[in-house]
Each structure stands twice: as C-alpha cells, then as structure tokens.
Amino acid sequence: MGPHPAVAAIRLAVRRVLHDILTEHSRTTGDLRASETAPHAPPPASPHERPPRPLVLVACSGGADSMALASALAFEAPKLAVRAGGVTVDHGLQPGSDLRADEVVLRLRGLGLDPVESTAVTVGRGGGPEAAARDARYAALDAAAERHGAAAVLLGHTRDDQAETVLLGLARGSGIRSLSGMAAVSGGPGAARRYRRPFLQLDRQTARKACMAQSLPVWDDPHNTDPAYTRSRLRHEGLPALEKALGKGVVEALARTAQLSRDDADALDAWAGQAEASVRDAAGLLECAKLYALPPAVRRRVLRRAAIEAGAPAGSLFARHIEEVDRLITGWRGQGAINLPGKVVAQRQGGRLVIRQG
Asked: pLDDT tens, 261-273?
C-alpha cells in the first residue's frame, strides 16, 4: 500500500525540485553523473571520485506547510544522495518564540536533517511589520545558506499563498510584475537561483493532510489569524468572500494569473534590456525622442532600471514615481526635476533624460 495521496503529492513536488538542483549542480561542477543517480544509490566510496553532493536547506517555521516540506525533503534527499538540512528563524515577535524555535530544531533533527540550526533576528519597522519580518527572515536565510554553502533553500509557499500575493499586488496597483506573485525559483545575494518553492501548485490543505497522515506535530502561528495583519484579513475574510461571490476555483485562477503575468513580465523585461542600449547616446545619456518611440510598458521598464542604477532603492520605487518620470518624455511642458527615493533626481535637459543622485 502506497503513501497517503497528500504525502505522495508533496514528495513528488520535492523530488522534481531536487532533480533540478542536481542537474544544475552537475553543470557547474562538471559531475555529469550527479543528475543521473539511481534511486537509493549510495554515495561514492571515495570523496575524490566526484565533487561533494549539494546541500539543500529547508526553511521551517514549524507550521503545516514547512513541516510537510521538511518531511518530504528528509524522505527524498537520501534517494539522490543529496545532503539535507534545515533552518528555523526566530523573529522574537511573540513570548516564548525562542522555545518554539528550539522545538522546531528538535523536530527537524528527528526527521534526520543535518545540519539544523535556529537563528534569531531583530525585526525592524521599515515598510510595515509584515515586510520588516520578511526582510529579516530572508537576510537570515541568505546568511545561513552562505555559511553552510547550501545550493538551495526550499520554501513552503503554497498555491493559496500565491493567490494572496496576487491579490495584494492587485490592491497596490503596482503593475504586472506584482501580479506575477512568487517565482518557483528566485535568488538571493550572489545566488540567482537560491530559493525554490516546490508547493506553488499544491494547496494549503494538501500540506496539512500530509502532516496529519504522518503524525507530524505542527504549530499554528497566531499571527496568521490576527486581523491586524493585511494578509491574515485577506486569507480569512477576503478570499472566502470572493469564493462566495464567484464560486470555487478563485485560488486556482489567481495562481494561473500569476504564472501568465510572470511570463509576460519576463518577456517585457528582456525587451527593455535589449532596448536600453538603443536609446542611449554616445555619452550614455537617455535620448528622449528614442524613449518616446518605445511602447509604454518597455519605456517605463527602461526608466525604472535607470533609476535603480542611479541609486533609487527598488523596494521604494513605485509606479507613481515612474509615471512622473515618464511624463518628462510623453508630456513635456517644461516641468522641473522629479525627486525619486534614494535622493535620486530625474530631469530633462537638451533632449536628454538625466537621472542621477541629486
């Protein structure tokens, strides 16, 4: 008798990601056999026969999603001779958070993961509590990956999380990139493909059922039901209201929208990257006439890239900023300079658009 369907689903999702990681590892190390290891194959007899196998870490909060992910990694990694470890981040936002982090460490070690560690962070206030906690968490995960030399870090975001992210992006009115949600593969400092999200095609209930089927203890973060947090309100009020009004399938449709939007956004970004060189003069300045000739979606991407290169923080550069700069191209009436985040200034001078720190 095979495993519970939910357990089989999460294991398959993780197996596919591990195969991808091994394939990439083989390309970078020259170990052509790395991605062809048969199931249950033992590690090489001598460490000199081939490069070390990659280490994959799982980011685990102790919740159902990340515990299901950790259990699947612990089951699948040995089959491919992949080293598997875990990291839990203590945000210090609740009484006893350090004790819960210690419990998660014990659970991960009980699954057979090694290395396993807990790392405490200080959550700032920039961008709101949710954004600040996220920034602190990713900084800690990046540091852990660098410290252990990990090839990848697995994250337990599900299809439900993706749907929520799309709706939040829609509410901000930030454009197609926000609607593209979370990528299945994304990067960290110096590692373009560090983070992997195996569960973006699986719903939250599948992960919870997998934990129940394996008798895995899980911790339900009270912040996830606290109406003080925007995502919590969306999860418990917004999405149920949409499903009541529009019928079942809203989550699946939003996740599909994310993928379609990501494909479109990637194509436009590539177009903008190619177009940027063609709209600069010999001195490297942007020529307004050539910018005007570009499609708006491409032109605004070129402007955004130029602002970021000049020192504007990407996270603080919103659509309204780029729209104001764009009007220097499309609605020129002799207006003055545009102030952007990071003390960056954009102004039109002699048919050129100059973007620099003021």
From this structure: 999 999 999 999 9
